[in-house]
């Protein structure tokens, strides 16, 4: 090959390399939970205002959808961080590993509660988890047998409840809030039934976790605003949402006590409220250094000015973890500690 040909080839490679560099992503991409979305967005905006890095792109895809995107591969076409309103599942870790995502850091950002809300113009509810199971499960135990759910009105379940048709707007299966509803409400209330305990484990789990399909439970795949709009237009209906969303919309909706406990910041932070859960985000360690600003964004999120008890995320409804836990989680995030299942 002549010197001229070599020079042309080298120049062509330089152009290709330059074009590739120009196309390289220089903006953090975050996906996942609609519950964590407002917190992540607030951090992204604060982070962007520093001027050192571009404001991250945050997408609300639902926890399950975010995990699928996050775990689909390594490289600029895949997200750097995914938010979650439940912990990553072993099957999702396996999917990550299969696609080369082998370094993951888990960060617990705080807590939230699941509330059962209705319009402020509607009747007052005081509920138990067992009543919610009876209201929303497809099949329930009646007279010692598992039968199709016969309850039409709330008062059919308990005379103390309103004489109103059962209508519950709940999150679709792609939401972490739906997973939490299953794990914190349906599983414990249903699983304690002797008839369920006597069943095959898989059959019992399916019986507990399958919701009604007769119109009493209506799945909403959009965000919580849609659920709030539904219950506002139908005061007798209930909606399954998060405490953080309720806290931002108390002028429109109210929440029912659950098992005698009212959802408050302190009740959730101290685990007295029975339907509370931690919130997370997950970092793809292989993207640290590949995508500018990942470590710096994480540092902003895990700073006391953001997630502390008096931080700006508290104004968005985040319930802060105890001081010692925040310190431990911040250190783990800073050191990009490996995920431990």
From TrEMBL:
Assigned keywords, A-Z: Signal
Residue ranges of every copy of the PBP domain listed in the record: 18-305
Pfam families to which the protein is assigned, alphabetical: PBP_like_2
Position of the signal peptide: 1-24
Transmembrane segments: none
Gene3D superfamilies assigned: Periplasmic binding protein-like II
SUPFAM superfamilies recorded: Periplasmic binding protein-like II (SSF53850)
Name used for this protein in its record: Phosphate ABC transporter periplasmic phosphate-binding protein PstS
Lineage: Bacteria, Pseudomonadati, Pseudomonadota, Alphaproteobacteria, Rhodospirillales
């Amino acid at each position: 090959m002549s010197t001229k040909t070599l020079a042309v080839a080298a120049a062509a490679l330089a152009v290709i390399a330059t074009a590739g560099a120009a196309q390289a992503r220089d903006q953090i991409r975050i996906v996942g939970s609609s519950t964590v979305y407002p917190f992540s967005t607030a951090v992204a905006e604060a982070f962007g205002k520093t001027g050192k890095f571009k404001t991250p792109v945050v997408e609300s895809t639902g926890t399950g959808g975010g995990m699928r995107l996050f775990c689909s591969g390594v490289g600029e076409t895949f997200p750097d961080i995914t938010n979650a309103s439940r912990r990553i599942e072993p099957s999702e870790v396996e999917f990550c590993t299969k696609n080369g995502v082998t370094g993951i850091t888990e960060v617990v950002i705080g807590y939230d509660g699941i509330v059962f809300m209705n319009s402020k113009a509607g009747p007052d509810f005081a509920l138990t988890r067992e009543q919610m199971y009876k209201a929303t499960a497809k099949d329930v135990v009646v007279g010692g047998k598992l039968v199709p759910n016969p309850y039409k009105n709330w008062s059919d379940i308990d005379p103390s409840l309103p004489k109103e048709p059962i209508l519950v707007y709940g999150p679709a299966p792609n939401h972490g809030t739906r997973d939490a509803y299953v794990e914190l409400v349906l599983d414990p209330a249903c699983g304690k039934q002797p008839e369920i305990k006597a069943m095959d484990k898989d059959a019992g789990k399916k019986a507990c976790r399958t919701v009604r399909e007769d119109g009493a439970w209506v799945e909403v795949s959009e965000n919580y605003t849609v659920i709030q709009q539904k219950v506002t237009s139908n005061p007798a209906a209930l909606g399954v949402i998060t405490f953080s969303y309720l806290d931002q919309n108390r002028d429109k909706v109210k929440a029912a006590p659950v098992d005698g406990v009212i959802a408050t910041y302190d009740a959730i932070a101290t685990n007295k409220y029975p339907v509370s859960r931690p919130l997370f985000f997950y970092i793809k360690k292989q993207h640290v250094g590949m995508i500018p600003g990942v470590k710096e964004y994480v540092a902003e999120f895990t700073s006391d000015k953001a997630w502390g008890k008096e931080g700006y995320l508290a104004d968005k409804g985040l319930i802060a973890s105890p001081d010692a836990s925040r310190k431990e989680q911040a250190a783990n995030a800073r050191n990009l500690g490996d995920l431990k299942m």
